[in-house]
């Protein structure tokens, strides 16, 4: 099971937050499968931290207990696309958001 935070919204949030020091943005987190974007599982609240940087507060339900991580993609489109003739979950999201070109996860 994959989960997504629309990166386009996050990118908009970072630009928006630069203009308003205490701004917050709440974005939906949905289940993503090869069939498409599914049910809403929760939200991520993104806020600017004092001194710089962003804080992500994630509130989700319906996933197994334990530690989870996430990463951002370059577009906010989490639809499936075909790869090698098979639909792949969230492939329309594009590559990972990596503005420093580190090529690391």
Helix content: 10-25%
Q: What is the first-to-last residue Cα distance?
A: 18 Å
CATH fold call: Immunoglobulin-like
Give Rg in angstroms. Answer: 15 Å
**Numbering strands along the chain, what is their spatial order in the largest sheet?**
1-2-3-4
Number of DSSP strand runs? 6
The CATH architecture = Sandwich
> Hey, roughly how much beta strand do the residues contain?
35-45%
- Count of DSSP H/I helices: 1
CATH homologous superfamily classification = Superoxide dismutase, copper/zinc binding domain
Oligomer: single chain
Look at the structure and give the mean pLDDT. Answer: 81
CATH classification, class level: Mainly Beta
Largest beta-sheet characterization: 4 strands, antiparallel
Could you give a quick summary of the protein structure above?
The protein has one helix and six strands. The protein has one helix spanning 7-19; strands at 2-4, 24-33, 36-48, 54-60, 81-83, 86-88.
What does this structure look like?
The two termini are 18 Å apart. Residues 6-20 have low confidence and may be disordered. By secondary structure, this protein is mostly beta strands. The chain has a single domain (2-62, 71-93), classed as Sandwich (Immunoglobulin-like). It is 12% helix and 37% strand. The protein has one helix and six strands. The longest helix is centred in the N-terminal third of the chain and has 13 residues, at 7-19. The strands form two sheets. Strands 1-2-3-4 form a four-stranded antiparallel sheet. It has a two-stranded antiparallel ribbon with strand order 5-6.
